[in-house]
Amino acid sequence: MALLIKGGRIITASDDYVGDILCEGECITQIAPQLEPVDGAEVIDAAGKYVFPGFIDPHVHIYLPFMGTYSKDTYDSGSRAALVGGTTTLIEMCCPSRQEEPLEALELWKSKATDSACDYTYHMGVSRFDESASSQLREIVNQGIASFKIFLAYKGAFGVTDQELFDTLSLAKELGVIVTAHCENETLVAALQQQLVAEGRTGPEWHERSRPTRVEAEGVHHLMTFAEMTGAHVYCVHTSCRESLEAVEAARMRGTRAWVETVIPYLTLDRTYSELPDFEGAKYVMSPPLRDPIHKPYLWAGLRSRLISTVATDHAPFDFSGQKEMGRDNFTLIPNGIPSVEDRVNLLYTHGVCQGRIDLQTFVDAASTQAARLFGLYPRKGTIQVGSDADLVIYDPDYRGKISVETQNMDVDYSAYEGWEIEGRPSVVTVRGQVQAREGEFVGTLGQGKLLTREPTHF
Ligand code: URP
Ligand code: ZN
Ligand code: ZN
User: Residue whose CA is closest, atom 1 of ligand 1?
Assistant: First the structure.
């Protein structure tokens, strides 16, 4: 059915104007100050509301075998949560183990997504690089999965050697794909963890001390050096601190093609949450860790100045009961991750736009447009223009409410933001012209989501 969205304030990464949008088929077909409904079109009154392009979360984990367990969401719960929160495209990390074959792993990850109600694609994890992996990665890029993911952390699990890092970046350069990277020095993390545990420092409050900012910045600097030597384009995922930003800025000044992602937990939470008593802090254990509050103003400034391109979630949901509890006697066994795919957009709007830290254009750019541009989805996604997919978020800035585990769609037994107030939320969310969420409820169809294929763009 056609959709006519009338009188909304249309906000893109560069524009701000009032107009009508007509969606037919799966695309935006007309934008004008005043449009008449076509036969049978649903008309949505967007007066007093914003119309944003569908938001893109470029870093989520839905299916993730990790630290002796599995992340909690499926595409049923995860895509419903994303949509209710205004995210219409997910980019999931496909994270095979060292033993898995890349092509088989991609098929496995794809098989988990058939229920998706939102569109999705993958960053292809490289956890082993040899001749066979190399030819499979070429095939994967040919299939339209045009970005890689590497881990410099998680020794003995996903982490790659320096030779594998060099080979992956060299292949990426040749193929024109960007490499996303988790940057922490795995040797230092392992040594510091061992030291702390031996000293009897076993609670979640010690997690941050086992992976201090310098350890993250060393990983970033390491990646920058390899990017400089190979000419590959790189993207630092979940950047948490000033030292890492400085390392990227310095590398950029030397000509390295590097981009920065931060995630909503670093902009809104801090280390004090992981110090909460009675093991409550385990809910806030992720890697890199939540930092001293002093880092937050640097992250907001980095976002404002566009040194940081994207705000993702690194959504990685593990129940408190039975999963986080695996590390009750030893913080190194707490599954790492904080769920937030449902809350990212509302938190960024509330704490960014409403608090005057970022303007509406930066908000859209960081939560949608930059991810589309960097990962080969633009202008199909990430903007509002004729010909783009009709992924739209009609956003009500007058809504006031609270985040709670009681009302969330994410399939996890706690909210890291329990009781937090939000100022605004999506009123209507469409994916390729289909209404999938209204006023905090999923009203769409599971399985409507499409796997998005992408061309290499980083030559
Ligand atoms: O703590 C985190 N970040 N968990 C998910 C895995 C990863 O490193 O992205
Ligand atoms: Zn990571
Ligand atoms: Zn992640």
Answer: 286
Q: How far is CA 123 from CA 92, 145, 424, 452, in A?
A: 6, 7, 31, 12
DSSP letter at 133 equals: H
How close is the Cα of 269 to the center of ligand 2, in Å? 17
**What pLDDT score does 156 carry?**
81
CB 87 within 8 A of CB 341: yes
pLDDT of residue 155: 82
Ligand 1 mutation pick, 92, 207, 336, 341, max ligand atoms within 8 A of CB? 336
* Strand duo 42-45 + 50-53: pairing: unpaired
- Residue ranges for the chain with pLDDT beneath 50: none
99-134 in b/e form (b: 16+ CB < 10 A) is: ebebbebbeebbeebebbbbbbbbbbbbbbbeeebb
Locate the ligand 1 atom nearest the alpha carbon of residue 287 and give its number: 1
| Residue 445 CA, ligand 1 centroid: distance in Å | 29
Give dist(CA 53, CA 51) in Å, integer: 7
13-294-404-85 Cα dihedral, nearest 10 degrees: 10
pLDDT tens for each residue of 231-265: 999 999 999 999 999 999 999 999 999 999 999 99
User: What residue's CA is closest to ligand 1, atom 9?
Assistant: 314
**Ligand 2: centre distance to CA 44 (Å):** 40
What is the Cα–Cα distance from 89 to 53, expressed in whole angstroms?
11
Q: Using an 8 Å Cβ cutoff, are 149 and 125 in contact?
A: yes
Phi-psi region of 419 (alpha: psi -120 to 50; beta: other; left: phi over 0): left
| Domains identified in the chain and CATH numbers | 3-52+383-442 (2.30.40.10), 55-374 (3.20.20.140)
- Where are the alpha helices (H) located in 275-423, listed in sequence order? 296-304, 344-348, 360-364, 370-374
Partnered with residue 66 across adjacent β-strands are 69
Cβ neighbours, 10 Å, residue 187: 11
pLDDT at residue number 326: 98
Residues making up the chain, counted from first to last: 459
Helix (H) or strand (E) holding 142: helix 131-142
Q: Are strands 178-182 and 147-151 parallel, antiparallel or unpaired?
A: parallel
Which residues line the pocket of ligand 1, CB cutoff 6 A?
A: 61, 182, 238, 286-287, 314, 316, 336-337
How many angstroms separate the most distant Cα atoms in the chain? 72
